[in-house]
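Translate sequence into structure tokens.
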Amino acid sequence: MPGEDSRPAIKDQQMYEALRRKGDSKEKAARISNAAANEGRTAVSTRGGELPAYEDWTVKDLQRRAKELDMTGYSKLHKDALIDKLRHH
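Result follows.
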């Protein structure tokens, strides 16, 4: 039925799953994998930068990232829980 599943389609499922395993959020993994499917992996990889793993971030930096993503309920979380929330956003 149309409109039943409003999630966008993932165009490169293999890349999406690899990015999720690496720890990227659902949104980021979908954005990167779909761009790679549309433009080619080489074009996308030359644009992207490398950020350190969330484990290397400070709690304050993790909270800023959560705010950027319009997440809620993150302000009182300890670091491990905050990282988990960001990865499963």
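Note: The chain has a mean pLDDT of 81.
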